[in-house]
Design a protein that fits this description.
Strand order of the largest sheet: 4-3-10-12
Strand content: 5-15%
Mean pLDDT: 90
Radius of gyration: 25 Å
Shape: globular
Number of helices: 16
Low-confidence stretches: 167-181, 427-433
Structural class: alpha/beta
Bound molecules: adenosine monophosphate, zinc ion
Helix content: 40-55%
Length: 484
Amino acid sequence: MAIKLFDTMSRSTRELRQRAPEIPFGMYCCGPTVYGPAHIGNFRTFLLQDVLRRALETDGINVRHVRNITDVDDKTIRRSQEEGKSLAEFTAVWTQKFHDDCDALNMLAPHFEPSAVAHIPLQIAMIESLVKRGHAYVAPDGSVYFRVASDPDYGKLARLDLGELRTQATNSNGDVNAADEYARDNVADFALWKARKPEDGPNFWQSPWGEGRPGWHIECSAMSTYYLGETFDLHGGGVDLCFPHHENEIAQATCACGHSESFAQHWFHSAHLMVDGAKMSKSLGNLYTLADLEAKGFSPMALRYVLISGHYRSQLNFTLKSLDDANSALEKIEKGASRLLAKAGITPEEFSQEISVNETTTAWGAFEPAWNALCDDLNTAGTLGKIFSALAELGKSELTKSEAAASVCGLAKILHALGLKIFIKKKSDAAGDNVPATVAKIAEDRWAAKAAKNWAEADRLRAELAKLGWKSLDRKDGYTLTKI
Ligand code: AMP
Ligand code: ZN
């Protein structure tokens, strides 16, 4: 079944496929601004993009995934100065932290991860093209602005009323609201290049218009088209990016190349994560990071489960209880999977190593409805529901070994498409980093053997641990390693 997805631009659900076999499916996702840890709301969006990519790849589509790193803006500059670090030193720390969190959440690394600072000349070239084509103008201070009135298509994505946009920007006296408006011809115009200010410190670059730095939006237009071509397949981000960021990206890219039909052909926006019923925000103090939740004993896999468990077009309310429920759900999948694996004669280790996923097989077995749900506008909630009903049915059925094997294959594929791993330890253990790798490996194997009710193997591995001077204290949802 082909994957269909809602497109914000056309407000319709459309099939996703490669334009030609030799052209990879180009997918650009707006990445993090690296001035602190990404919060779990950001990760809802990044994880849903990860699931979309995995689903496309499961469908046999060759995806080229690009996600940028925003490493220069007001916040990164200000915070680096507060910490007395260079911008590069400061953003490198938070980029690394972001990568660590992505790995922990089992996210596939994008094929390209360009940073704004590493692509300044590319952005300058696009601004030059906009100036040359009459879509941008240079203000007296050396800043460059995009002239919104020069683009008849501006506002198409967010379906804006441009007249309204102009009046909104003036107060009841008709005065322009924003402080630096004097530089712009029209309040809807936005900065492509920002002239150097004293508070930028050493963070400026040379340009045809003098020293300065790029505006907020230009990096995505320049880098997406550089890595994916003037026309590419899909662009993603949270709903908050629809306007103005994505609207401006479209205007910059299409006006710079002169083709109004180019740029992203499909727009994928995911709704926000809420916390205890309110929008997650720093001011409400309801913001969580992965580290906050790990400190409370929750695993990244439980968080992944929670963040992908709701449909991407609906807001999702996050509670700590939902993480407990996710642990129970993962355990339930593990139990059902163990029964199915036993019928198919496949070990949890083989399953975890995805030996059972033979790329040439199209077998979904009992998990076909789960896959169909994923293809139907990335209905992750429906997919999870279908996984549970398939496991329940399989538990009741008399299966031949080959029937069971087909369903094992289907289960492995659907869990892979969701990025969910089972038969892994779900809570971080207290002994942490001091556990030697060999001991940790034996403990993991023992936990997997236990989950598969392979008691003899579990006992053998317990004895091996003891020989090395370690014992495992088991809980319902994990274990802690201690020295004997
Ligand atoms: P930022 O680092 O602020 O540029 O955001 C990175 C990504 O996270 C963007 O795609 C945002 O739209 C998205 N995002 C921000 N807040 C939330 C939230 N509460 N829920 C879901 N996505 C979000
Ligand atoms: Zn962007």
